[in-house]
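A reminder from the course coordinator: this example appears on the midterm review sheet, so study it carefully.

Given structure:
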């Protein structure tokens, strides 16, 4: 059995979970509502303030989906109760970030600024403190969407291994390389 798949998802107070006939799970909470289509082979059972996922066989496909859908629903419950936050850091001389509404204006060392439109479901904020690297804060209820937007922002200028310049996640540990050894 999948270790993650067998663990039930507990439903906190103020959250309602419903399963439609088409196997679509809807999670409503104080911060919003999320929907996820579940594969027809996985059965979703709601009992005693818990959601349990069951699979029909031990096929590789069923085993893979068992843990996946449990994790997705667990992330949805966390999103509608607490919300999800992701923080990115801009490391490099002259790297800047500014936002007006959901439009980010990034200066990442290229000849032009990058204008990036963040989806309307997410809140974005930029923080620039003296003596510290500029930060981009993403906040919302959909963990998948936040992860996707954060990965896209990071891909605009990935951190390089020599000086660590680029866009990185806050708390990310980079693998550094030694540069060229000096001559004689």
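Designed residues:
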């Amino acid at each position: 059995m999948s270790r993650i798949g067998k663990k039930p998802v507990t439903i906190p107070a103020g959250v309602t979970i419903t399963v439609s006939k088409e196997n679509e799970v809807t999670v409503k909470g104080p911060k919003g509502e999320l929907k996820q289509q579940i594969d027809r082979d996985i059965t979703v059972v709601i009992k005693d303030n818990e959601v349990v996922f069951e699979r029909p066989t031990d096929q590789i496909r069923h085993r893979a989906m068992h843990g996946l859908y449990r994790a997705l629903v667990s992330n949805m419950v966390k999103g509608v109760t607490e919300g999800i936050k992701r923080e990115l850091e801009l490391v490099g001389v002259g790297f800047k970030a500014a936002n007006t509404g959901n439009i980010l204006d990034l200066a990442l060392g290229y000849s032009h600024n990058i204008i990036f439109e963040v989806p309307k479901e997410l809140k974005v904020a930029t923080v620039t403190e003296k003596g510290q690297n500029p930060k981009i804060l993403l906040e919302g209820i959909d963990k998948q969407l936040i992860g996707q937007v954060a990965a896209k922002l990071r891909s605009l200028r990935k951190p390089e291994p020599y000086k660590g310049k680029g866009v990185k996640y806050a708390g990310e540990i980079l693998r550094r390389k030694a540069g060229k050894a000096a001559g004689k």
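The chain has three helices and 13 strands. The two ends are 61 Å apart (CA to CA).
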